[in-house]
Amino acid sequence: MKKWMALLLLMTMLLAVAGCGTTNNGDDNGDVLSGTVNVDGSGTVYPLMAHIAENYMTDVAPDVSVQVGRAGSSAGFKMFIPGETDLSDASRKIKDTEVEELAAKGWNMDEQIMEIKLAYDGLTMVINKDNDWARKMTREEVVNMYLSGQYKADDKVLWSDIRPEWPAEEIKFYGPNENHGTYEFFYEVILDEQEMVTTAKLEQEYSTLVDLVSKDKNAIAFFGFGYYVNNQDKLQAVKVDFGNGPVEPGLETIGEDLPYAGFTRLVYTYLNLEYAKEKPQLLDFAKFIVSEDGARKLAGDNGFAPLPDAIHDDYLSTLESIQ
């Protein structure tokens, strides 16, 4: 009897070990996943994608190395189009010219390239903590203050030019540079492609923008809501009036049908499906991004509003059909 019980216990332990191997670190064939996944692109999307990658490597596939960069949306596509990266994060939709460049490589959208909507972001105007006058602005004031020639020929705009009761001190304009989708969204959508004030200083690193605004009470900058969330101890967000009273950006207000819709945008990642067919670790990571443990779960932790589950469920079905 004792011998039979020992044999049963041994079989149970062996089955448990085998089960762990296929559930936590294997592909659909039960093979252990390994290798690398290369992601680059949007600095706005970076905190969310880095968090997803960290959880994937910790909880799902410890032998896979997911490398996430933050060169900027446009700079990311310059690496993605020639095939240097597997996934390209973007804080704006891919441009027609970029789609044409991919097609020239033999990679067509929706055939070899898959667009994945990750979450909603709210463009956030940030000011210094000591600024006690510009905490609420209308959308029109935000747009006009950034337009070249709107107030001064030399674009040395004073706060009092916006509202007479505000200080007669020069505004220091900041924002991300042309490598970033956030710049393109601000210029193309918010400013409607009108020339930006020549006095605006555009930076590559978001951390530099945070530092500059936090040290100058006359500074103002724009970037994604996530960077504001992570730096609320140094900055304050401007409440924007889109016509129905000032609205503070937040997970409860950011969305296409919510009060902060005027400054809401989608953020994306683009997947090379040809590479996903060749690299099982890439396909598995892409599935994780749109799984219940991926973007939809981690969006809120990183300052993004999650999309409806049905959108990512559809992406997951598509990826699961890939052989």
From TrEMBL:
Gene Ontology molecular function: any one: phosphate ion binding
Localization terms from the record: Cell membrane
Recorded GO CC terms: plasma membrane
Gene Ontology biological process terms, A to Z: phosphate ion transport
Family matches, as Pfam families: PBP_like_2
Membrane association type: Lipid-anchor
SUPFAM superfamilies attached to this UniProt entry: Periplasmic binding protein-like II (SSF53850)
UniProt keyword list: Cell membrane, Lipoprotein, Membrane, Palmitate, Phosphate transport, Signal, Transport
Keyword Signal: yes
Domain PBP: 34-292
Main location group: membrane
UniProt keyword annotation of Iron present: no
Signal peptide: 1-18
Quaternary structure and partners: The complex is composed of two ATP-binding proteins (PstB), two transmembrane proteins (PstC and PstA) and a solute-binding protein (PstS).
Family: Belongs to the PstS family.
Purpose: Involved in the system for phosphate transport across the cytoplasmic membrane.
Protein's name in the database: Phosphate-binding protein
Species for this entry: Alkalibacter rhizosphaerae
Organismal lineage: Bacteria, Bacillati, Bacillota, Clostridia, Eubacteriales
